[in-house]
DNA sequence: CCAACATCTGAACATACGCTCATGTATTGG
DNA sequence: CCAATACATGAGCGTATGTTCAGATGTTGG
């Protein structure tokens, strides 16, 4: 299973023993992600891995909106939208501003807008 | 529930009727994502929303590796790694090259490397 | 205060996802 | 040919996730 142990007694020597091919060709030598780093990064991408949340981001990329209008724009319940905005808030992708009964949401900063636009263009092929 | 219908007969007029606040302040007017567009974009982010796949990308960001070495580097079974490489392949995030019994994987293009590095730096705060 | 509104929250259910396990295919050396 | 190696694949299981539903909190106008 592991294919890590050295060959038994005959046939097919273990040629896969950490000797990768050309040895070096890419950019700088960046250390691989640790387990916790990969988990943090995974959680970040996971927030953007949902159609509803992405549509919310796409709306907020144009202007600021209250929960009610966001729900209406996507033809979804305000409860569902509120749940998703909570996730976007926890990931610091959006900020909000209370005004009376309403809560207006907007993208947290320009990094979010840029990431969204970059990936959108990347998929427009 | 929908809060879309006009007020009944008295009290609390429907102030949330698509009149968002300042009206305009951000960048250009980009149309919101359609349902299918958001699904495609969501699937793309979903591939990057897993710790194992991110660690694979982080390894392939430095060099090209065969499945066996990738599994060994992450202390996981070759089966698990093969399953994840399949997902990365389907998303066109990695390419591969067969050499005898081994299959060497690498990042598909520089866009992948740039996206990975950008987000990594963004989380290093 | 009270009713309507705007939003938030917790529980529950259906679905999606990642790993393990067993098996299948392909390549190599003897 | 045959066995070991390298990788791929399908089924199955436990867990995570998004939505609905019911209800709670907070705000406003009469």
Distance between the termini of chain A: 40 Å
Structure annotation, total helices of chain A? 5
The portion of residues assigned to helices of chain A is 40-55%
Summarize the helix and strand pattern of chain A as letters: HHEHHEEH
In the predicted model, the low-confidence regions of chain A spanning at least 5 consecutive residues are: 1-10, 20-25
Taking strands numbered 1, 2, ... along the chain, how are they ordered across the largest sheet of chain A? Answer: 1-3-2
The major pleated sheet of chain A works out as: 3 strands, antiparallel
- Report the largest inter-chain contact: A-B, 67 and 67 residues
Percent strand of chain A: 5-15%
Q: Can you describe what's shown?
A:
Chain A has 125 residues and is mainly α. Chain A has one domain: Orthogonal Bundle (Arc Repressor Mutant, subunit A), CATH 1.10.10. Chain A contains five helices and three strands. In chain A, strands 1-3-2 form a three-stranded antiparallel beta sheet. Chain A is elongated. The first copy, chain A, starts with 34 loop residues before the first helix and ends with a helix. The N terminus of chain A is likely disordered. At the A-B interface, helix 1, helix 2, strand 1, helix 3 and strand 3 of A face helix 1, helix 2, strand 1, helix 3 and strand 3 of B. Chain B binds a DNA duplex (30 and 30 nucleotides) through helix 4.
